[in-house]
Amino acid sequence: MPRGELLKKLFHSYSQGDSQSFHEVAGEIIRDEESKNNRVLANALRRNLGSGQRPLALPDKNNFTSRKLAVVPIERDKQLPLVDTIQPERRASDLILNRNNQRLLLSLLAEFRQRDVLGAHGLRGRSRLLFCGPPGCGKTLCAEVFAHEVKLPLLVASMDTLVSSLLGETASNLRKIFDFAAAQPVVLLLDEFDAIARLRDDETLNGELRRVVNSLLMLIEQFRGQGFVIAATNHERQLDPAIWRRFDEVVFFEKPAKAEILRLVSLKFRNFKTDFEPASVADFLAGFSHAEIERVCLNAIRQAVLNQRNIVSKRRFLESVALEKRRRDIAGRLPQ
């Protein structure tokens, strides 16, 4: 195909957000240069095509359908993406929160939906959020539900890729991620946030990671994207004190009280019958996390299905509770 036609196809695929076609045409241009023995140029083009960015089809504002071609940052050494893209599927009805957290998150949604009104008065909505609390209490789920409610893609930072052994690369990777999140409306989730935001006086921290914390402080403070940055941690006491001041809002996720336990059990059995009322088993679940209660319910349903029952008995449910307690006891004996 003539060079002019290839270039026209390349630009057309970019304008249409057709990532696959874009890379196919780019590859064709590279092969064309190789056939002309322009190997230096061909190698340079191939490196540039995969050296810093990978395609991401961003969802449409209203229905999550692909609209424009954007790019995902990748780390320099192994060429791996620094974020994973998730199309949010979990809805608000899947999330059980206490009333204080419900009110807080509803107010954040209202600010986002009326951001033009705030902007007309020189104000910005809160967009930098810290989720903390015990494991299994809904932090990651809440981030997904939040992304679904604001109709934005959810980007989850890959901590194992982000933290690099190369000098200065971790801070560079962080900047790539924040620059990307600021370039288009997204919800960026920094899960296991304590891995990069530890106390700077922690003796186990080397000089490189202390510099990472300094970079992180600046990146969070300077974030002015149209979406959100959500950091989540199970170990809030390990965070550097200066980190807390950089967030617009802190949401603490606690283990469910009795009212939330009742709602959660009802939610999990909404499509499967039981011979008991949630109130009759709530006390057996006191002290359990949301994830543990979900596991109890799903295991009880699973056993009923395997035994060809279309109803979960209270006896089977309590057997599932006993199994979860056994699991907790084992976890409690493991070194922390």
From TrEMBL:
SUPFAM superfamilies: P-loop containing nucleoside triphosphate hydrolases. Gene3D superfamilies: P-loop containing nucleotide triphosphate hydrolases (3.40.50.300). Coiled coil: none annotated. Residues 125-257 form the AAA+ ATPase domain. This is ATPase family associated with various cellular activities (AAA). InterPro entries: AAA+_ATPase, AAA_ATPase_domain, ATPase_AAA_core, P-loop_NTPase. One of its GO terms (molecular function) is ATP binding. Pfam families: AAA (PF00004).
